[in-house]
Amino acid sequence: MADGIETESRKLLGRLRDAMASDDAGQARLDKITHLIASSMGCEVCSIYLFRDEDTLELCATEGLKADAVHETRMKMGEGLVGRVAKRKRIINTPNAPQAPGFRFMPETGEELYSSFLGIPVQRLGEMLGVLVVQSKAAREFSADEVYALEVVAMVLAEMTELGAFVGEGAAMSARHSQAVLIRGTVAQEGVAEGHVWLHEPRVVVSKLVADDPASETARLNEAVDDLRVSVDQMMAMAGGDKDQQQVLEAYRMFANSKGWLRRMEEDIGRGLSAEAAVEKEQSLARARMGQAADAYLRERLSDLDDLSNRLLRILTGQGSNTGAEMPTDPILVARNIGPAELLEYGRSLRGIVLEGGSVGSHAAIVARALAIPLIVHASRVTNDALNGDRIMVDGEQGVVHLRPEETVASAFRDKIAMQAEAQERYASIRDKPAITKCGTRVGLHMNAGLMADLPSLDGSGAEGVGLFRTELQFLVRSQMPKRSELSALYSRVLDAASGKRVVFRTLDIGSDKVLPYMKPNDEPNPALGWRAIRVGLDKPGMMRMQLQALIRAANGRPLSVMFPFVAQFEEYRAARAEMDKTLAREARLGHVLPSQIEVGAMLETPSLAFAPTKFFEEVEFLSIGGNDLKQFFFAADRENELVRRRYDTLNVSFLTFLENIVDRCRETGTPLSFCGEDAGRPIEALCFAAIGITTLSMRPASIGPVKSMLHRSDLGEIREVIHAARDRGDQSVRPAVMEYLRSQTNEVRRLP
Ligand code: PEP
Ligand code: MG
Questions:
Q1: Dihedral-angle region of residue 499 (phi above 0 means left; psi in -120 to 50 means alpha; beta otherwise)
Q2: Strand locations in 638-749, DSSP E?
Q3: Higher model confidence: residue 354 or residue 518?
C-alpha cells in the first residue's frame, strides 16, 4: 500500500475528527462531513443515506445533490444502486452507473448523469446503518486504495451514528438507540414487567476512533494482543482435560496468533484509525460474514473470533464486564444467553429477562420459572438494540418486548400491569380459602418447586404443599456434583420451610435437555427418547442411592414422599422401589432415624404406563401425570420445538379421553392421582382436568390464584356435560365449547339484578 494513500486517508480522518469534535448540531456535522469527503476524493458528489426505519433509506446529507432533497429522498431496501448496496451489504464500484444493474435515475435530487458510482455500506458489527456514496462525472473506477480509505471512513461514520453524533433538531436523524423498538420473541415464563435494561455483558463503547500517531497505536495494539495471548493460554491451562473446551480454546489461540488478523488491523491503524477502531472493523467484517456463512462450523469459528475481538476491545479500553454502571433498581436483564448459575446469582432482584438465544426448556428458563420472573427467549437483535438504562417493557403474555416505548404504548402496557395487579389482589383475598367448586368438589392445589428460593411462595400462594420438587435443579445450577451431606442439608431446609406441608421430592430427572455441566453428555440421536431420568438412575444406581440416602436423612423422623420420574413400565417402578427399601434398611443399620411415614410414587409421563397391569396401579402408592412429557409422547410432538409444540391442544378430545382412562384405572384401584405438568396451571385446562376427575393439581405458585378463582365459580357437572357433548359432536378440541359455556355464564351473572 502506498504511503501517500495512507497519509491521505489519515488526513481525511483527522479532518473528520475535527468535524466530530465540533459543537455543531447533528445536521451541520453531517453536511461538513460530506463536503470534506467530496473534496478529499476529488468527486462532485458525496451523500450519506441512513436508515429511517428497517427498510427505508433516507438521504441525510449531501454535497453536490440538491439541498432540498435532503430528508425528502427515500428509497426502499434493494431499490436503485444505493438500495442494492444496503440489501447486499456489499460495495458497488462502477465507472458506468447508468449501465449497472438496478440503476435508477433520481431527477428529484437534481442528479445529473454521473458516470462513476462508489457505494459503501455503513455498518457496525454486521448491522446495516446506511450507505455512503461518492459520484463523479468522469468515468473512472475507484482504486482499491480509495475504496479502502472510504471503507474506513464509513466505519467511523457508523460509530458516530451509533454514538448519536447526528442527532439534532428537526431534520437530523435520530440515533438508532433513541428510537422505540418492538421485538417479538417466544414466551418462556409468563408475566409482565416494566423496568430498565441491565446488560449481562455490556457492549464495549469505543469513543476514540481516530488517532494521529500510528506508531503508538500499533504499539498499544501489539501489547493488547500479547495480553490476549497470555489470557488464552491461562484459560487453556484452566480447562484441564475437557476436550470440548480445549477445542474451542485451540481455535481462540489460532486466531490470537493469526498474522493476517494482526496485519489487517495494523494497516487500518496506518490509515488513521485508533487501535480499538481497527479491532472493531475486523469484528464487523467477521459479523457480516457470520450472517452469510451457511456452514455451521464456519459460523462457530466466526463467533469465536467475535468473542476474541470483544476480549481484545476490553483490554484496549480497560472496560471489563463491569463498566462501573450502576444496576437500576428495576433491572430487566438483557443477554445473548445466560447459564442457570449466573441467573441464580441475580436472583429475585430481576424484574424480567430477555434473551436473544435460549429456549423454552433451557436451564435458564427453568430457573426463571422457579423465580417466577417473566422471560422472553429468541428476542432477535435485542443485545444490539438495547443500551444499559434504556426503558424496557416485557410482555410475557404476547411474547413482545418494547424497548424505549412511545408514551402511548407505555401507558397501554401499564394498564395491563395494573389489571394484573388488581387480579393478584383479588387472588390474595382467596388465598387461605380452599378450592371448592360451586358443586362442592374440593380440588387440591399444590405448587411446583425446585430451588430453596421457591419455598417462600408456599405461604404466599396458598398452596397446600409442594406437589413436585424437581431435584435436578440443584444439580444443574452447580459446577460440581453436590455432596450427599450438602443435599441432605438442603432437603432438610426444604422440609423445615414447608413446616409440615407435604413435599413430593422427585428423584433426579437428568438426560434429554437437562444435561449436567459436569457430566459428559451422551451423543444421543434423540435425547428426549433416550437415556434419561429413571433409566439413568437404574443403570447407575450409585447416584440414585446417594440421593435416596440424602432424602431419608433430611426427613430425620418426619414423613417423606418420593416419586420416580419417567417410569415407562411396571418393572422400572419395582426396581426403583426395591432400591428405596434396600436404602431404608441400610440407613437403619447405620443407625439413622427413618422417616415416620414413607410414600413412594411414580410419574406417568409415557403412554405405556397408562396401560400397565392393574397390579402396578395397586402397588404404586400414588401417581402424578407429567403432562409436559406425556403430551409430547402422546402426539409425537417435541415440547421444545417451536414448529410443533403448540400444534396440538391439551384439550384435544383424544388426549382428554386418554386422561379419563387413567382416572378410571386409578379409581378402580384407589390410587391417588395428580397432574403436575404446566397445563395444570392454566385455568381452563385445570377446570377440565377437575371435571374429568383429576382433583389434585400441582402448578407454578403464580397460577394458584387464577385456577382457584376459576374453580370457585364453576360447576364441574356442567363442564362435564359440555365436554361430553363436544365429544359426541366430534369436535377436535373441547376448548371452544368450554369457552363458549364460560362466556354464557359470565353474561348470565351480569344479567342478574
Ligand atoms: C412433566 O413432564 O410434565 C413434568 C412435570 O416434568 P418435567 O417438566 O420436569 O419434565
Ligand atoms: Mg417430565
A1: left
A2: 673-675, 696-699
A3: 354
Q: Residue 704 is inside which H or E element, if any? A: helix 701-712
Whether residue 444 contacts residue 483, with contact meaning beta carbons closer than 8 Å, is answered with no
Q: Please indicate whether residue 628, judged by its CB atom, sits closer than 6 Å to ligand 1.
A: yes
Phi, psi of 727 (to 5 degrees): -65, -40
What's the pLDDT score for residue 191?
87
Residues in Cβ contact with 727 at an 8 Å cutoff, skipping those fewer than 6 apart: 653, 656, 657, 734
β-strands 623-625, 673-675 pairing? parallel
* Ligand showing the shortest atom-to-Cα distance for residue 506: 1
Mean pLDDT of the chain: 87
- Domain 214-317, CATH number (from 3.40.250.10, 1.10.10.10, 3.90.76.10, 1.10.274.10): 1.10.274.10
Q: Which atom of ligand 1 is nearest to the CA of 626?
A: 3
Tens of pLDDT, residue by residue over 261-289, are 899 999 989 888 899 999 988 888 777 77
C-beta of residue 647 within 8 angstroms of C-beta of residue 631: no
Evaluate if residue 2 carries a pLDDT over 50.
Answer: no
How confident is the model over 189-201, as pLDDT tens digits?
A: 888 999 999 998 8
- Which three cell numbers mark 234? 491461562
Phi–psi pair at 594, nearest 5 degrees: -90, 160
Domain ranges of the chain: 3-173, 181-201+328-420, 214-317, 443-751
Would you say residue 246 has pLDDT above 80? Answer: no
C-alpha cell of 740? 363458549
Q: What is the pLDDT of residue 353?
A: 96
Q: Check: CB of residue 563 under 8 Å from CB of residue 504.
A: yes
Phi and psi, residue 176, nearest 5°: -55, -40
CATH 3.50.30.10 is right for the domain spanning 181-201+328-420 = yes
The residues, ordered by sequence, that sit 6+ positions from 488 with a Cβ below 8 Å of its Cβ are 549, 550, 551, 553, 554
Average pLDDT over residues 631-638: 96
Domain 443-751, architecture per CATH = Alpha-Beta Barrel (3.20)
- Cα of 335 from ligand 2 centre, angstroms: 27
Atom of ligand 1 nearest to the CA of 625: 3
- Flag whether pLDDT at 322 surpasses 70: no
Which residue's C-alpha comes closest to atom 9 of ligand 1? 470
Report whether 416 contacts 394 (CB < 8 A).
Answer: no
Are 426 and 419 in contact, with CB atoms under 8 Å apart? no
d(CA 181, CA 392): 10
Share of the chain above pLDDT 90, in %: 48
> Residue 223 contacts by C-beta under 8 Å, 6 or more apart in sequence?
none
Distance of CA 676 from the midpoint of ligand 1 (Å): 7
Q: For residues 723 and 688, is the Cβ–Cβ distance under 8 A?
A: yes
531 close to 511: Cβ distance less than 8 angstroms: yes
Count of CA atoms in the C-beta half-sphere (13 A) of 449: 27
- Alpha carbons 677 and 703: distance in angstroms, whole number: 12
Pairing status of strand 352-355 against strand 375-377:
parallel
pLDDT (0 to 100) of residue 431: 94
Residue 330: the pLDDT is 95
Report residue 578 as a C-alpha cell.
426395591
Q: Tell the CATH superfamily of the 3-173 domain.
A: GAF domain (3.30.450.40)
Parallel, antiparallel, or unpaired for β 331-335 and 352-355?
parallel
Q: Say how many Å lie between the CA of residue 515 and the centre of ligand 2.
A: 14
**CB of 679 sitting under 6 A from ligand 1:** no
Convert the pLDDT of each residue in 713-747 to its tens digit. Answer: 999 999 999 999 999 999 999 999 999 999 998 87
Is pLDDT at 614 greater than 80 in this prediction? yes
509 lines ligand 1 (CB under 6 A): yes
User: What would the mean pLDDT of 467-483 be, rounded to a whole number?
Assistant: 86
Q: How far is the CA of 605 from the centre of ligand 1 (A)?
A: 8
Q: What is the pLDDT of residue 323?
A: 55
